[in-house]
Specification:
Four copies of one chain form a homotetramer. Chain A is α+β, with helices and mostly antiparallel strands and 369 residues long. Chain A has a single domain, classed as Chorismate synthase AroC (Chorismate synthase, AroC fold), CATH 3.60.150. Helices cover 28% and strands 21% of the residues of chain A. Chain A is built from eight helices and 18 strands. A five-stranded antiparallel sheet of chain A has the order 1-2-3-7-4, covered by helices on one side. Chain A has a five-stranded antiparallel sheet with strand order 9-8-10-16-11. In chain A, strands 5-6 form a two-stranded antiparallel sheet. In chain A, a hairpin with a 5-residue loop joins β12 and β13. Chains in contact: A-B, A-C, A-D, B-C, B-D, C-D. Chains A and B meet through β1, α3, α6, β11 and α7 of A and β1, α3, α6, β11 and α7 of B. β11 of chain A pairs antiparallel with β11 of chain B, so a sheet runs across the interface.
Chain lengths: 369, 369, 369, 369
């Protein structure tokens, strides 16, 4: 059973290889009546697309999304939404060297082992190019969520050892992460950019962390016992290329706290809403959102394709030296920000629709229908 | 759509509340012909059951598993396996206080919000008691995996700030984690036990980390692009009560390495098998296992039910002081070790069966069938 | 991937063999707040249970259902509902003869081929005994549907060549199908009973048809394009033991009509509701319910276990004569009536919950929330 | 939860409206290594495409399939296969009349009720145009099945009251159903063609039955208890537009037979293979294929869009007369033949892959791996 589909009510299924003719997907389960704007969609795409700044790959894809179905008179129709992006700047010739050997820590070896073949051009299916469709699909789900006031904000919180304060919150701040490295602290952002440029000049790559916060997340999202909101977010994040870790709220740091320190006391605000005075839980308790902002952190390794010579095995199993060419990101973090937001939107939209069915049924049972 | 089912080929669906009549589940998709031993099954249960040592809850459940179906003449029959555990030491009377208010950082508030009701006895469905069935089900899957030589070993690698060296590996060592705190370093284990006893005496709780290693994991497990092995492991772990974080291989530490440091170089061993000289990847590359040992780390917060007085809201929304009674774990880490192993087995067994279909089909297509 | 689960939002997963310790299941996705009565549940069970009349098997099972979870203070809690029925009158000794050979047209041969083993006692998993859990689960879903006024009525419309008029409708009639053969025409029912008794005396079996009608089925159930309501009903019915055919509305008879005869003209009634003057569609158009009563017919073959001598192969593949013993139904139709109703309820409840999510989302999008 | 996906291991998800820009789909779960020919694929498409003969709609679509992914060097790669067909002869202007009223027995009313909107052009998503993608996807699955020798042959067995003998079998015969009406009896075919031409001249439509036979179907396909092979075939067929009935083997006729007549006696042939002397079961016993040819019959109503004036309601709910224009099939049976074959292939391929996992696991457990 393939794993090319995500979600249970709102689902996204994707196809496509990095240097094939096109990539695409089907977003399904979106309710009818949501107004759609091609311009807004394209703005989302531009945040992820390659070639957007001096610190990203020089591959130049416009990532123009064709919406092939599911829209009627400018609104979603409730039918599956077919999405397509033509690959326009694919250059399979760059990859002949790679076809001959397994790049260390890349998907080359595992795909070859599993399928008995692999498409070396740009990593084929294993390329992060596939995530462009996730961003396109998430646009529609974000529009749905925005009608409940839900705001999803991800940003780069560390590159190598350059790290934003862990207690930093973008929610309510005037900060903008819309610089090229997408770190909301502009002086730290500058240092990060310099560090990435240095790594690029060395043919090396850097990792880092992305923090995501969700404002106005309704209480009640997440399902006992396996589909906890935090569990589905963890899966969503680890499904992104190069992701190696996830923590909800205080996460790994919580392991060094006592229960009496970690527990988030409940209070009421002036409007009678239930809040907690701290948010170590990151907005999820018992696997279900509690109405506080969601907050989680995602770890990305330095990407494996480096331009330095590396020792490896060729496809005949002989030791050989590999020196990759081609166009690559020295650090995927800035471009991963919209992907983290996209996967967050897919998880929240899915869980929100799953919950809606229950809400409606409860209204009926209680005679309000 | 409820989230009470896990897996795609081998699936586990569970039911039951902490202080209800029984908990149970259905394990499905297990192939026929696997020899089953009730004694072995019970040994697995004993590792998780409450009341097993001085550092766990005093609730005394034998956790005797009834296998109601799916076994014929001592072997699995390929039919769904019905599993049942009677609750014998349930004491609903202990929970009257809890029914009146929301325990901070517990599932009380979120369940009430979502369902408009909640079963206060032992946390109802939100209790970790449910995980007993996961351990029972995993026994059958471990038996299947063991025929491929797969060995799953989890252990406590930190309690509060008492931490095992990150490079420690239990694979190949003579260490046993079969002490009451399940840390393989016996002198560290003793310190951990003392720390937990201290926390209990204070009415407080502690968190920590569990590391899991898998030996002889076949290459090829995991599916592009959403059902990466690491993504499904992340979800599996975050679905365990009190889990707040997951990292694969070098995880969060990888964010501070360069690509040239982090990449795992390929080599061949004497038998011609492909290995990597380091294992920062934790055995997963491109979302698919590469034949190296799996290694990942899981963060557990200090559990929320403490016996110290806490300020909270009662069910009418008034500020009140809560002082929990009842029998609780001061630190869930030791009992979570078999649960981490169980969820790992469910993920690996599921992916292994999913892959088997492909392997068999490839044999046919290549004319070997 | 096993096929022991049914439904997408409201799901039923079952386990258990005919002569094992117990059969059971987990019903999931039922919203909280539905009042439950054990007596009502047992009445549903009594309509299906063996030994209920002179024309059914003499196996005597009380089919007392234990509800192990998912109920709190007499109402559903939104948690999975664990269901269990002990097998009390299992007699494995009756089946030694059957273990040695393959009963013609029974599941013996196919199960042996697929699993490499089979449980001969009562047919093991292939026995219709499993459907008792479907009836138990459907009770909860019927209670949910009844809050929308949905009424499901199935009845025996033919036994062998004794057939009720095809245009007969039980909806609105005073007829009761609560006689032992469950045919609402009492004089026809008597003939059917006589015919079944004759078949039993000959050691033979009879088939027939069940018609099911659903009154007050809301318009809008069913999903394009694969999960048409008629498609899911077809699957549900063909999943019942001995079922060999399904037709929606005019079904096979429609193939002999012209479009101008078959089309159901739309009109409005006095209250402004949209109706059709005929109902050849059986209440489903384009795969979605149109608000008219659902009507469909289900074909059941004569069950394969007969007490007459038959030629067959034994398990070594030698021709041999088989003379079955044991307790069997000469005609399953009367007992299949509650099963048809149960599967109908599972399909409708599932689709209704799936639709609820959309309804709620539409309310939000249109600003009514 | 939408219903736009079919299958569990091999899955097809489709999108697209009749007169939108394109229709498409993603076929997933197909193993790597299958040789693919664009010419063969196109031949399959030509059997379904509109405008192929004088008895089909005059809409002229070439139905040229673009394969956007999942193929590497002429073979399947194991990655999802993206399929796309541009709509080239869409004429939305033909449908303005239809937008104003509900065509009797069409999906107009039910889609409007469910989604609060509908795309009137060609029926939007409810159009049988969607099935073109099913045929395209099935090509790949047929290629897989053909490696096991599986041959799927569907043909028109009745139009109105012109009916082929029920005992007719195309397997082993020299008959070709490759005439324009796809009935293998050439003299009956001529009568059918004349009848269809007559119906067209009257602005009316005709229904009929398609019989499907599968030769060399391996024993062992189908899963207890809900995913019986017959149940999944029933769902597959009822998911086709205008389908109103399904029967497996002797089907409805079996209801008039006694068990002693209906049971299929087992014998061995010269090669030691297990056969049955009759095949009333249609190749499925206990929900699992028994190695005999599959045989089932599918009922299609006369399609609802007729060119005769009909009384109906307009979208304001007023009685009005509707006189449809546009290009329509007077009888969908001939074009439905490849669709029936396609859905059969999807069911068999899915079940075959599901079973492969079990076969491979059994080999391991028995030490053959």
């Amino acid at each position: 059973m393939s794993g090319n589909i995500f979600g249970k009510y709102i689902t996204l299924k994707t196809f496509g290889e990095s240097h094939g003719e096109a990539i695409g997907g089907i977003l399904d389960g979106v309710p009818p009546g949501i107004e759609i704007s091609s311009e807004e969609l394209q703005q989302e795409m531009d945040r992820r697309r390659p070639g957007q700044s001096k610190i990203t790959t020089s591959r130049n894809e416009k990532d123009q999304v064709q919406i092939l179905s599911g829209i009627y008179q400018g609104k979603t129709s409730g039918m599956p939404i077919g999405l397509l992006i033509q690959n326009t700047d694919a250059r399979p010739r760059d990859y002949s060297e790679i076809a001959k050997s397994f790049r260390p820590s890349h998907a080359d070896y595992t795909y070859s082992t599993k399928y008995g073949m692999r498409d070396p051009a740009g990593g084929g299916r294993s390329s992060a190019r596939e995530t462009a469709i996730r961003v396109a699909a998430a646009y529609f789900v974000k529009k749905l969520l925005s009608q409940k006031g839900v705001v999803i904000r991800a940003y780069v919180s560390s590159i190598a050892n350059l790290e934003l304060d862990r207690d930093y919150s973008i929610i309510g701040s005037q900060d903008s992460a819309e610089n090229i490295v997408r770190c909301p602290d502009s002086s730290l952002a500058e240092k990060m950019i310099n560090l990435i440029e240095l790594a690029r000049s060395e043919g090396d790559t850097l990792g880092g962390c992305i923090t995501c916060e969700v404002f106005n997340c309704p209480a009640g999202l997440g399902e006992p016992v396996f589909d906890k909101l935090s569990a589905d977010l963890a899966k969503a994040m680890l499904s992104i290329n190069a992701c190696k870790g996830f923590e909800m709220g205080s996460g790994f740091a919580s392991t060094q706290m006592k229960g009496s320190e970690h527990n988030d006391p409940f209070v009421k605000d002036g409007q009678g809403r239930v809040l907690t005075t701290t948010n170590h839980s990151g907005g999820v308790q018992g696997g279900i959102s509690n109405g506080m902002p969601l907050k989680f952190r995602v770890a990305f390794k330095p990407v494996s394709t480096i331009l330095k010579p590396q020792q490896t095995l060729d496809s005949e199993g002989r030791l050989s030296e590999l020196k990759a060419k081609g166009r690559h990101d020295p650090c995927v973090l800035p471009r991963a920000v919209p992907i983290v937001e996209a996967m967050t939107a897919l998880v929240l939209g899915d869980h929100w629709m799953r919950w809606n069915a229950l809400v409606k049924a409860k209204e009926l049972i209680q005679g309000q229908d």
